[in-house]
Amino acid sequence: MMLIKGVISLSLLLMAAVQSFELNMTQYYEMPQLYDFDDYDRCLQEFEGTTATYCFVRADVQPDNTASAWRAIAEISKYDRHHFNHSHLYFGLCMHQCEAELATLDADVRQQLQTGILTDNPKVNVYLELFAMEAGNRARYNEPSNECINWRLQRRGHGVRAKSVVEYCDTSDTAGKIIEEDDAWNMTFYVVLCALVSLVCGSSLIDLHLKRHRHDKMLKERDHYKTPPQSLATRVLLTWSIARNWYRLNQEPNGKIGRELRFLDCFKFFSMFLVIFAHTNWVIYEGAISNPQDPERLLHTPAGTLLISGSLITVTFFVISGLLLTINWLAVIRAIMDQGQKKATLDVVQYAGLFVKFNVFRYIRLTVPYAFVVLLSGVYFGNAAGPLWRHIYEREQLACRKNWWTNLLFINNFVRTDERCLLQGWYLAADTQSFVLSLLVLILGQRFGKWSKQLYGLVLGIFLVLPMVLTYIMDYYPILLPTPQTQKNSFIGDRQFTEFYSSFYMNFGSYFCGVLAALAYDQVSLKQYKLRDRIGFQILWFTLIPTGVLWLFSAHPIYQHYYAETPRIWGAIYAGLQRNLWAFGLGIFILGLAAKVGWVIRKFACLPIFRILGRLTYGAFIVHLLVARVVLSTVRDPVYFGTGTMFAYIFYVLCASYLVSLLLAIFIELPVSSLLKLMR
Question: What is the C-alpha R_g of the chain?
């Protein structure tokens, strides 16, 4: 209790010490707007008889201390944890209108307006490389677009100049049209889709036929779909049956362990909701916002700290994954022992066989639906277009077509990280790498049972200290810092995200806390400890809830304090503790719920609605960013960033993601899972 009081007192003291921040709005409006878009549809539709062109242009304002606009940019952008880089601007230019404006100017004036082509921004260069097919448009429109931008900056009295580069151009003939409808990627998708539809239809019709001609007349109609056929060949034929897969999706958990851990579905759903919340906001940042000052202000408040600390949500998935791996491992080992294995351990060949089997089965189960979503992400299709469509959505298509193999090999968290396909896939890569290492540790713990506790303690200690050491040596910031500009740049070139956040070795301690929670749960079950009857454990369990909330705010003094750097050693210690302590506390929390501690919290978490939602979480995870990009890339004007708008987009993305996930589950995920069960 003294420790808890100390944490509360320290958090309140540190939060009170952080000074509030106020934007100077007079100075703010001296800066050029971050986003300046001409009317996209009017541009491409108004000028009949000509091929109209609309270009998306990136511009960097050049330093000029004599201009008040530049001084405002420098002053406001220096708070880079909370603010956009206001020197980097997006323009959507109607080139017909642009050239008409330039035609009224003298040649000397136009020459003075030319500031140069933007070539020294590495993040922009990543986009330019992906849109290499736009080289012709750049050669034609780079100079006039630069003149137009500087003419606008001059007319509006900003007194600054900018270098610029065309990212891409749309024309009235190509906007929203399919680029290459019959290319190999699209044809592969159509073939796969037709095969899936054929399998589902055929399997469902066979199942319906068997139901109508069943021999057991006492069997209820709905029970037909719940009862597996006796013939192996028939089971394979019925794998894609829609009705049968719906009942599989909705079936109650089997066995004692399944019933005790059914609350995990609730954990998965709410964690997925928070992930969609964060990622939808990120895609909004990646596009265009009409009131950037409001999210910038928000990030200076405790609510901003809460948003930044939301990265801890991914720890929940790591803990659950480690927990389920260990429970499955223990179940398999016990089944082997029960089949007549007299020795306490297996031989090397048996362990190697189990290691390969676990990894192959997991790879197939995860990769088949994942590969379909990667394939879908690269498909060209007719669309509503818009000034940001290609910047937000087509960039993903091009990255998936180029780097799909890094996703399927689960190495996309450290290979070609500036051209990621499905950015959220970093988690699957880190989780896969953690799975492999954890399985090796569990095998060693089983093989050398006498030293297992020391082994587990050593592994936990190493991966608790390793993030501290790396943070100190590599001079990482103590927490993940998804700044507005970082999100606007889609995390391209962000060392903090690539090395500090998404690498498996920085997350393995959290994963291993799930492994330890499963081992503890196993011992509690075997020895029949009644944790819910122990007052001390109940007090500890309920105390974890307010302590967890406070822990989310523990980054507040680090994140909000600009006036002195966090001492490097303390920053390193916090970096090692932030995720791992959260994971350790979550492990205890899960152990308590499994032991039926928690009263109304457990009852709520075990509601039947979460059974389906929890099982659809994997599909929603791999597809939700694709849905968010489709929704937000068709906007014509900058989006107003407000609570209502934000939650409207989040709710839409959440619902659409789970609906798409339902189709993935019925068509791919559940059939693959059924086939794998038959192979065991």
Answer: 28
Average pLDDT over residues 273-293: 94
Q: Which of 610, 325, 577 is nearest to 471 (CA)?
A: 577
Tell me the pLDDT of the chain averaged across its residues: 91
Contact in structure between 56 and 98 (CB atoms under 8 Å)? no
**Confidence band, pLDDT 50/70/90 cuts, at residue 17:** very low
The two beta strands, 35-37 and 88-94, are parallel
> What pLDDT, in 10s, does the model give residues 72-127?
999 999 999 999 999 999 999 999 999 999 999 998 999 999 999 999 999 999 99
Cβ–Cβ under 8 Å, residues 306 and 552: yes
Quick one: which of 540, 28, 528 has its CA closest to 294? 28
d(CA 529, CA 592): 11
DSSP of 497-520, one letter per residue? IIIIISSHHHHHHHHHHHHHHHHH
Residue found by looking up tokens 């122990």 in the block? 534
What are the b/e assignments for 361-400, b being 16+ CB within 10 Å?
A: bbbebbbbbbbbbbbbbbbbeebebbbbbbbbbbbbbbbb
CA-to-CA dists, residue 229 to 215, 225, 233, 263, 434, angstroms: 12, 9, 9, 31, 37
**Whole-number pLDDT of residue 213:** 75
Closest C-alpha to 431, from 284, 621, 609, 559: 621
Residues 6+ apart with CB under 8 A from 500: 470, 471, 474, 476, 477, 480, 506, 575
The closest alpha carbon to 59, from 33, 41, 40, belongs to 33
Please return the burial class of 22, using the count of CB atoms within 10 Å of its CB with bins 0-12, 13-18 and 19+. Answer: exposed
Phi and psi torsions of 652, nearest 5° = -65, -45
Predicted confidence band of residue 49 (pLDDT cuts 50, 70, 90) = low
Order of strands, sheet of 53-61, starting from the edge strand that comes earlier in the sequence: 35-37, 88-94, 53-61, 162-171
Distances (CA, A) of 280 to 97, 486, 624: 34, 15, 9
